[in-house]
């Protein structure tokens, strides 16, 4: 099950996993509205007895504003979608994984959980919280054969990247990336695919940065 699987990174992950023979469920917002706890609870209840072997918490929102101008409602919606919803989905579906003694959970975080830039206080805070949730979940679920990791992409060629950055900003950013380009969605998807697979037998509780070397400088 992958959230935010209809476009961008999520679509690339879903496509690659399907190509590898994984049955992918990517619920649309009318089925699972991550901004509403009652929708999350209803979705979990509807899937009880079936469960998922893999959960990818990919959906996220980034509403830009200066710290002194962050609206309460923007803070709350980012906290809900970026952090509370992943917690609720892990809490709701991990019992199935525990019962079968196998599971893989990947939380899509961000380099802005580790470094930051202007106008991203709420986004950085919620993604840093997601890293903490990842580590705690990894420790608690490890005895049941469930591996939990976070992936922190850098700048990726997605619609959201072009919405949040002007062409001039992206040119300046690209110049600071050692590989001198933005990532392609399929490059992030390949890392996520490994973390979800049976090939991953020992990697858990980690926050994995994939940013072309951006955070090295």
UniProtKB/TrEMBL annotation:
Family annotation (SUPFAM superfamilies): NAD(P)-binding Rossmann-fold domains
One of the record's GO molecular function terms: 3-oxoacyl-[acyl-carrier-protein] reductase (NADPH) activity
InterPro entries for this protein: NAD(P)-bd_dom_sf, Sc_DH/Rdtase_CS, SDR, SDR_fam
GO terms for biological process, alphabetical: monocarboxylic acid metabolic process
Keywords assigned: Oxidoreductase
PANTHER family found in the cross-reference section: 3-OXOACYL-(ACYL-CARRIER-PROTEIN) REDUCTASE, 3-OXOACYL-[ACYL-CARRIER-PROTEIN] REDUCTASE FABG
Keyword Amino-acid biosynthesis: no
Entry-linked Gene3D superfamilies: NAD(P)-binding Rossmann-like Domain
Family to which the UniProt record says this protein belongs: Belongs to the short-chain dehydrogenases/reductases (SDR) family.
Organism classification: Bacteria, Bacillati, Cyanobacteriota, Cyanophyceae, Oscillatoriophycideae
Name of the protein in question: 3-oxoacyl-[acyl-carrier protein] reductase
EC number: 1.1.1.100
Pfam families hit by this protein: adh_short_C2
């Amino acid at each position: 099950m992958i959230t935010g699987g209809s476009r961008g990174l999520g679509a690339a992950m879903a496509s690659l996993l399907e190509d590898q023979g994984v049955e992918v469920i990517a619920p649309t917002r009318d089925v699972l509205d991550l901004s509403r706890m009652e929708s999350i609870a209803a979705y979990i209840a509807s899937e009880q007895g079936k469960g998922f072997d893999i959960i990818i918490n990919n959906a996220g929102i980034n509403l830009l504003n200066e710290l002194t101008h962050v609206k309460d409602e923007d803070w709350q919606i980012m906290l809900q979608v970026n952090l509370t919803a992943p917690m609720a989905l892990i809490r709701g579906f991990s019992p199935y994984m525990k019962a079968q003694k196998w599971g893989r959970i990947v939380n899509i975080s961000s380099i802005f959980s580790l470094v930051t830039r202007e106008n991203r206080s709420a986004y950085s805070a919620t993604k840093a919280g997601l890293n903490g949730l990842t580590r705690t979940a990894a420790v608690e679920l490890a005895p049941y054969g469930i591996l939990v990791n976070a992936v922190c992409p850098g700048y990726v060629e997605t619609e959201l990247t072009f919405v949040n950055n002007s062409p001039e900003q992206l040119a300046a950013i690209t110049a600071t990336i050692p590989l001198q380009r933005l990532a392609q969605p399929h490059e992030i998807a390949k890392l996520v695919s490994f973390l979800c697979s049976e090939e991953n037998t020992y990697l858990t509780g980690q926050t994995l940065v994939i940013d072309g070397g951006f955070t090295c400088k």
